[in-house]
Specification:
It contains 2 helices and 8 strands. The chain is of the alpha+beta class. It is globular.
C-alpha cells in the first residue's frame, strides 16, 4: 500500500519544492523600493515652483501613501499597493478626478515605474502615463 502512495507523495513533495515562497513577483521587489522612499521630499516643477511630497508606509507596509503639495494647489494623495504582478495606485486630486493606474515591473532591478491608465472616476479623457524614479 505504501508503494502505491509513494509516487503521489513524491509528486506532492516535488510540487512543494518547485513552488518557493522566496520566488517573489517583480512587483514585490519594486514595491519594497517604493517603501524606501518613505520621508519628505522637495523639488521644483517645470515652472520652477516648489513641489513637496511625502511618502508614508501604511498598514504594516502593505501600502504607501504619497501626499503631493504643489505651489498654489490643494494637496493630492495617491495610495500605492501590490496587486499580484503589478503595483496599483489611485490618484485623488482637488479637481475631483480619481484615475486608477498600474505599473507591471519586468525585472527585480527596476529603477523606474511607469504607471498606465486603467480607468477613472469623474474623468472622460485618460491622463498620460506617469513614471516614478526609484
Amino acid at each position: 500500500m505504501l508503494c502505491r502512495k509513494l509516487p503521489c507523495l513524491l509528486l506532492l513533495f516535488g510540487s512543494l519544492v518547485a513552488w518557493s515562497p522566496l520566488a517573489l513577483p517583480h512587483s514585490t521587489t519594486a514595491f519594497k523600493k517604493l517603501l524606501s522612499l518613505a520621508g519628505r521630499w522637495e523639488g521644483k516643477d517645470e515652472h520652477g515652483k516648489v513641489v513637496k511630497t511625502t511618502f508614508k508606509a501604511m498598514a504594516r507596509n502593505t501600502a504607501v501613501m504619497e501626499t503631493l503639495a504643489k505651489s498654489g494647489m490643494d494637496e493630492m494623495v495617491s495610495p500605492y499597493s501590490v496587486d499580484q504582478d503589478s503595483i496599483a495606485l489611485v490618484h485623488y486630486c482637488p479637481t475631483d478626478k480619481q484615475p486608477r493606474m498600474r505599473a507591471t515591473p519586468d525585472s527585480d532591478d527596476v529603477k523606474e515605474l511607469t504607471f498606465a491608465f486603467q480607468g477613472a472616476a469623474n474623468l472622460q479623457t485618460p491622463p498620460p502615463d506617469i513614471s516614478i524614479i526609484l
